[in-house]
Specification:
437 residues, alpha+beta, Immunoglobulin-like, 2 domains, 4-stranded antiparallel beta sheet, 9 strands, 58% helix, extended
Length: 437
């Protein structure tokens, strides 16, 4: 069969597919919903891991996947419900045909109202069909919009990180980095205005000369070259235009409703950080097992310790390494290799260099950190480890001999810089019970 859009056979084939597309829609929706519920937990775990690791690029990617998951899932569930209602309406139409208002024998006022507002049963079936098809199509349009937004955000983040790199020449920052950030930021504003006004900037001749170059660049940045025909076909109808005005407010309202909760106390909440009076599960390793929970700054094995030794795991953070370089400048490499690297390039320090410097690195950390149980100070001896949640950090063990039974508080502090002065910064307080066997 020819794929020429002007071919009558091709058009007839498209008309047949259009009428039978509901079967494909239901099959795709069913499999997609099942698959979506299978992947949401790994996506949430990866997003939380990226946030804890301070990996900006992965955070953008997985947060975008989370938003896409909610958009697709909500829309497809709504589509299946409406399509099921449509199938039920088709079955009912086969049994009783159209609505017979004479048999209902309602008063003239109610009859006029129902004939005007409800109309024929065929009109109801047609409306359901229209909404089902639109919801299925707009689901993937919204995901493409989100992908475009994430692409632009990624570009801005990459440019912003480039400006913060000391290794980048100043001429490249001032003549490329800053102008590109300004252009992309202005382009985002203009593209959003054009999107919100349904193409107003494309309709005016006086806006063409400055918006067309922006449009030409952003059609690649937002990947709109893949879905533009669907957008314009959606907007060339009155129903499509009206619906597009309500899409964003509907999702904003849904987001607000999802973020609405119920509080049972003026002082207690579920997400309170650990301190002298509260204990958060993200600081106890036995509470994190099998859950989508990661260690928050530091962790100990349990809320109740039964042995006279207390292992303490401290999570690694990028800012910690910056302070290590300030306290021991000999550890600062000639080129900072943190960030994106290539498998085909030299993305990490060589094994011999790492081995030679690791001892000094950990010794500097040990000088920076002080651990206290109540008022008893401990100087740690660190060992680089990876915890069961795949977080990297350093571990030490504190001797609890002589510590009385009962409640105690582990207080972790470290030296930090404020401008040119050194001060002691409190990292976290973790309460625990000590009852040796």
């Amino acid at each position: 069969m020819s794929n020429d859009p002007q071919d009558k056979k091709f058009k007839k084939w498209l008309d047949i597919l259009q009428q039978e597309s509901w079967q494909l829609e239901l099959i795709i929706s069913g499999f997609a919903i099942y698959g979506l519920f299978m992947v949401i937990e790994p996506i949430e775990t990866a997003a939380l891991q990226a946030e804890i690791d301070q990996n900006v690029y992965k955070s953008i990617l997985f947060q975008g996947l989370q938003v896409s998951w909610y958009i697709i899932t909500v829309n497809l569930i709504a589509h299946v419900i409406l399509r099921g209602l449509w199938i039920g309406a088709i079955g009912l139409r086969y049994v009783s045909a159209d609505i017979d208002y004479d048999k209902l024998n309602y008063s003239p006022k109610f009859r006029r109202h129902l004939e005007k507002r409800v109309g024929s049963f065929d009109r109801y079936v047609a409306s359901l069909e229209k909404y089902c098809s639109i919801i299925f199509a707009i689901t993937f349009l919204l995901v493409f919009y989100l992908i475009g937004l994430l692409t632009i955000t990624f570009c801005l983040t990459l440019l912003g990180l480039m400006l913060n790199k000391d290794e980048i020449p100043k001429w490249l920052k001032y003549w490329f980095g800053i102008p590109m950030i300004m252009f992309i930021s202005l382009g985002m504003v203009l593209t959003f205005i054009d999107f919100a006004t349904q193409g107003w900037l494309k309709k005016k001749k006086w806006t063409t000369f400055f918006y067309y170059p922006v449009y030409w660049v952003f059609k690649y940045l937002t990947l709109s070259i893949l879905y533009r025909p669907m957008v314009y076909n959606f907007l060339d109808t009155r129903f499509g235009k009206r619906l597009s005005f309500f899409v964003v407010p509907i999702y904003l309202t849904g987001t607000i409703l999802v973020g609405t909760g119920f509080s049972t106390s003026n002082y207690l909440t579920k997400d309170m950080n650990s301190n002298s009076y509260t204990a958060n599960q993200s600081n106890y390793e036995d509470q994190m097992q099998g859950k989508n929970v990661f260690a928050d700054r530091a962790s100990i094995p349990s809320r109740t310790i039964y042995k006279p030794a207390l292992p303490v795991f401290i999570v690694y953070g990028k800012s910690v390494e910056d302070d290590v370089f300030r306290f021991n400048e000999s550890l600062k490499p000639d080129q900072d290799r943190r960030g994106i690297y290539s498998l085909f390039g030299d993305g990490t320090v060589s094994f011999s260099q790492r081995t030679n410097k690791l001892k000094d690195y950990l010794e500097t950390l040990q000088e920076m950190y002080t651990l206290k149980i109540d008022s008893i100070p401990y100087k740690p001896t660190f060992l680089y480890v990876e915890n069961p949640q795949k977080q990297i950090g350093y571990e030490t063990t504190l001797d609890l001999q002589g510590i009385p039974r009962g409640k105690h508080v582990l207080n972790i502090t470290r030296k930090d810089f404020r401008e040119d002065s050194v001060y002691i910064r409190s990292i976290i307080r973790i309460p625990f019970w000590y009852y040796p066997e």
